[in-house]
Amino acid sequence: MSVEFCGLQLAHPIVNGSGTFDAIAARGVFGEQLLQEFPFAAYVSKTITLEPRAGNPPPRLWETPAGLINSIGLPNKGLHGYLLEDLPQLAEITGGGDGRAAIPLITNVMGATAEELARLVEACDAQSQIAAIELNVSCPNVKTGLDIGADPLQLEQVVSAVRGHTSKPLIVKLTPNTADVPACALAAEAAGADAVSLINTLRATALAPPAGRGGADERRDRWLGGGNGGLSGPAIRPVALAQVAAVAARVTVPVVGMGGVQSAAHAQDLLDVGATLVAVGTESFRDPATATRIARELASSAFTQPSASLRGHSDDRPNHRSEE
Ligand code: RRO
Predict the structure, then answer these.
(1) C-beta separation of 242 from 181 below 8 A
(2) In the predicted model, what is the mean pLDDT of residues 38-46?
(3) Cys-Cys crosslink for 94: which of 22, 103, 234, 279, Cβ 3.0 to 4.6 Å?
């Protein structure tokens, strides 16, 4: 069941979505049991930025009937704090030893400019405990205000600018909030990305309950302190499946698929449309052992690597597009 991903040998194809499993907090709760039975075949850190960030004001979460809107706002200790405080702990958790295999550690970074991202990537490249780097390109460009990853041209420029700063595998986490996700995936690949991951959360919002003042002109406030947020969970699974299928049909680099995965069948769907790895996200908040269960179920079922014919078997192939 082991899987090769960007030169890394993984025990199985299930990883975590960045920011959805705090391994340091989990170790505090589950102790050594977490190390003995780590749920993921590779561990992706939450997003770090150059400078520390406090994150968005509360409320940060809103539950929907089949999902979760978050507006966390990437609170983090900044690069220096991550390297000094978190990385040694994460390296201990994922480092193996005592009969345990090492779990590759992937650090997720975000910057508002190519220069910021290049500094983050270079700093991660110097750390032997970090196996790979994931670029979160959902950040608004400081000049245009548009998400860096939403525009293929801008994405290609940014990935090209950081590519030379690391020899480690570079994964580009694509945004789903754009017109042509496969075009963005192709741009990332052309600029030297070793893999792409998708989907991040879908832009969403929620209104606060009416204050009860009444009247047709009552202005409802946004519920989330940050205004808008991102929707995850089962509600987005069909969207994720469509976007992963569309991207996997176009790129040659491996694809990490995610979005609403709760079961081995959901993971298998993403593998069947061409994902090499599958990430579990929101479901880990409900049950932190979800990934362990899914990996076991996949191992005990007729799990197979997706065949080349399946990868190409999509209505998203270029020659199936109506405009071509
Ligand atoms: O921190 C967040 O609010 C956040 C990030 Br960086 C992200 O990439 N996706 C998301 O849903 N929330």
Answers:
(1) no
(2) 98
(3) 103
272: exposed, middle or buried (Cβ count in 10 Å: 0-12, 13-18, 19+): middle
Tokens 């976007």 correspond to what residue? 243
Entry pTM: 0.93
Q: For residues 174 and 154, give the distance between their C-alpha atoms in angstroms, rounded to a whole number.
A: 13
Strand partners, 172: 135, 196
pLDDT band of residue 229 (cuts 50, 70, 90) is very high
Specify whether 139 is catalytic: yes
91 lines ligand 1 (CB under 6 A): no
Q: Is the pLDDT of residue 43 over 70?
A: yes
Beta partners for 258?
Answer: 279
- The finding on whether 49 has its CB within 6 A of some atom of ligand 1 is no
Does residue 73 line the site of ligand 1, with CB under 6 A? yes
Question: Whole-number mean pLDDT of the chain?
Answer: 92
Query: In 10 A of CB 132, how many CB atoms?
Result: 23
- What amino acid is encoded at 125 in this protein? D
Q: What is the pLDDT of residues 168-197, one digit of tens each?
A: 999 999 999 999 999 999 999 999 999 999
CA distances from 153 to 107, 160, 180, 190, 244 (A): 25, 11, 12, 11, 20
Cα 204 to Cα 110, 140, 228, 230: the distances in Å are 20, 16, 6, 5
Residue 210: the pLDDT is: 85
pLDDT in tens, 138-149: 877 777 777 899
Residue-wise over 171-199: b if at least 16 C-beta within 10 A, else e? bbbbbbbbeebbbbbbbbbebebbbbbbb
